[in-house]
Amino acid sequence: MSDVYSLPNRKARICRLAGAAFLVVAGCLAVGVAAVLFLPELARLCDGTTCELTTGPLELLPTDVRRVVTASPAARAAFDAYVARTPVRLGMAGAAFVEEAPFALLLLSVGLALRRFGSGAADALSQALPWLRRASIMAFVWALAPSVSSSLVAMLLYPGTPEGPHWFFTLDVGSIGTALMLAIAAYATVWALEAGLKAQRDLADFI
Q1: Which 3 state secondary structure label does DSSP give 123?
Q2: Mind listing the pLDDT tens digit for each residue in 140-176?
Q3: With a threshold of 0.70, does the pTM exceed it?
Q4: Chain-centre distance of CA 153, in angstroms?
Q5: pLDDT category, 49, cuts 50, 70, 90?
Q6: What residue ranges do the domains of the chain occupy?
């Protein structure tokens, strides 16, 4: 067959184990995403390369606005009452989902692709490539998700501050640029492999 793909048993086993590890981590992240949907105040706050769990939405505001809120007991009480509203909590949960879900789906897709590679099936390559393509698409989404999520959260919380409703957009060009370049490289690699596999099949059919 034109698309026969075979790995030695040892390498196939390693692929399956690696795939299982990715699936386990993806499952743990899925649990975390579900937890954030019920407890949006547990959203991750990342600054550069460091991340920490926050215990309150106040930490998700821009620094200058946070200072204004904390400087006045009345403003802090009004903010706490605002973020306790159900629509606000649902909005924060949605923003957290936007940030966390793409990475979980990325790991899930990579895990399933590795499992296909190690399956021993004759068409393992053609089975794995669609999952790798989905993983590369999720990499694009994941690159943009933190900026989108942070912007949504800030605009959602602004009305509860003395500043009032505001448009707010944040963009970490360095981090996004690096992630997008890696995503483009992954997608181009998958595209080239799929194109090569299709050409091989067409040639085999012609012959």
Answers
A1: coil
A2: 999 999 889 888 988 999 999 998 898 888 877 777 8
A3: yes
A4: 16
A5: very low
A6: 9-206
Chain CA centroid to CA 66, Å? 27
115 neighbors 54 (Cβ within 8 angstroms)? no
* CA-to-CA dists, residue 18 to 83, 102, 113, 115, 183, angstroms: 42, 20, 10, 8, 20
Which ranges of the chain would DSSP assign to H, the alpha helix?
A: 9-38, 63-70, 73-83, 86-117, 124-157, 173-206
Q: Which of 86-95, 180-189, 191-200 is most confident?
A: 180-189
Dihedral sign computed on CA atoms, order 53, 55, 61, 62? negative
Cα-based angle 114, 128, 25 (whole degrees, multiple of 5): 35
And the tokens for 40? 């949006």
